[in-house]
Design a protein that fits this description.
- By secondary structure, the protein is α/β, with parallel strands linked by helices.
- It has a single domain, classed as Uracil-DNA glycosylase-like domain (Uracil-DNA Glycosylase, subunit E, 3-Layer(aba) Sandwich).
- It contains six helices and seven strands, in the order E-E-H-H-E-E-E-H-E-H-H-E-H.
- The strands form two sheets. It has a four-stranded parallel sheet with strand order 3-2-6-7. Strands 1-4-5 form a three-stranded antiparallel sheet, with no helix packed on it.
- Helix 1 packs across helix 6.
- The longest helix has 11 residues.
């Protein structure tokens, strides 16, 4: 069954950063935005990095507005070979080309953060022309927030995210 990405893109005014993920996990109870599967460590990591609670979509968007961070996924539509959230399980992929192009054209993005090596690889393969055209944009791969990425502990991931992600502007 072909799935279409349910969240689109989130782009705050004056975005300078873009987080690119792969594709949303299977939707379930409480899954209302990016990285919201119960096991994904993304938001718990950001709570520690920024010292704030991120309990709902509004709080997460408020943080991204303050940081100037846009977010979208590289895959717009796909099928899953089996009934799980693994990136390598995605097939018959339709890329989210127009959204990514629009974000880069309409904003002064300085850094694209990839949520995993898988996303980095897909981006560099499928968006070669964008990489060349926006050669001044830095490309950084974050440690995967998936608990399956056990090469690093959650604490090590937090340390890396603190080093790589933008600082929170004091209001």
């Amino acid at each position: 069954m072909i799935e279409t990405h349910p969240f689109g893109s989130f782009v705050p005014q004056d975005a300078h950063y873009l987080i690119l993920g792969s594709f949303t996990g299977k939707l379930g109870d409480g899954y209302d935005w990016f990285y919201c599967s119960k096991r994904n460590q993304f938001w718990p990591i950001l709570e520690v990095v920024y010292g704030i609670k991120l309990q709902n979509k509004t709080e997460k968007q408020k943080l991204f507005n303050r940081l100037g961070v846009a977010i979208t996924d590289i895959v717009l539509k796909c099928e899953r070979k089996t009934n799980n959230n693994l990136d390598m399980n995605l097939t018959n992929i339709v890329y989210n080309t127009q959204a990514i192009v629009n974000i880069l054209q309409k904003n002064k993005v300085k850094i694209i953060f990839f949520s995993s090596r898988f996303v980095e690889h897909l981006f560099k393969k499928q968006f070669k022309e964008l990489v060349k055209f926006y050669s001044e944009v830095k490309l950084i791969t974050l440690p995967s927030p998936s608990p399956r990425y056990a090469t690093m502990s959650k604490l090590e991931k937090i340390t890396r995210y603190k080093e790589l992600l933008p600082r929170l502007k004091i209001c």
